[in-house]
Amino acid sequence: MSKEDQIIVNSLPRTDVIGVPITATNMGECLSYIDSNLDAIRGSYVCVSNAHACVMAHDDPAYWEVQAGSVMSVPDGKPLSVIGRRKHPAMGRVTGPDLMREVFRMSPERGWRHFFYGSTQGNLDALRVALARDWPELEVADMEPSVFRPLSNEEKAELAGRIDASGADFCWVALGAPRQEVLCHDMEGMTHSVMVGVGGAFNVLSGAVSDAPRWMKDHGLEWLYRLAQEPGRLWKRYLVTNTKFIAYQLTGAKRRRTRR
């Protein structure tokens, strides 16, 4: 990447959210940035960050580096955008499913192709059907399920090779945090695509998991909707990490240096 390209990559400001550098952006600005700078940010990765990710980054210096090293760590969670708006009034949510929808909408005109990595083969099959139905002109370069274990360095290089061989401009990674962001960080510069960690967005877009109503998203109640859907899996996350997030914010947790 040239020095000129590096300046472009670093152009979006970050704001401190419990010590984690979150990109102070909104959906429109995020999409405009990607559209204008796609060639400059190829090989980089985007984190779609929520309160859970922020708490993990706050507590784990290695994961903090992953979040700080992204080309963008966009505010998926409502609390992040609320905190960020104190210094950046235009900051708004950029959720994984909505970001995918908007990029898909733009893709046919721009010729963008997409690789999907993660989840199970059954879930990917359902996603393929949904994509063909909802975005019939979308170019799906390929899909590959997770192996549900960490990849070796050789396997990461081979995956990057398959992504590039498919001609993908975007690689959507659905492994859940922190695995997806760590993988993208490890593969930075190995692929020609832009990697984006989107968690459970594959299941939302396929219809396997219903998306929260807009009014719940607007009022920061998406967590309650998700908890009602998957209480066994999510209760601990919301009880522990959300409580820690609030505590860190109220007590002014120790801040780490914002790199970007």
TrEMBL record:
Keywords, ordered alphabetically: Glycosyltransferase, Transferase
Keyword Glycosyltransferase recorded: yes
Pfam families registered for this protein in UniProt: Glyco_tran_WecG
Protein name (Swiss-Prot/TrEMBL): WecB/TagA/CpsF family glycosyltransferase
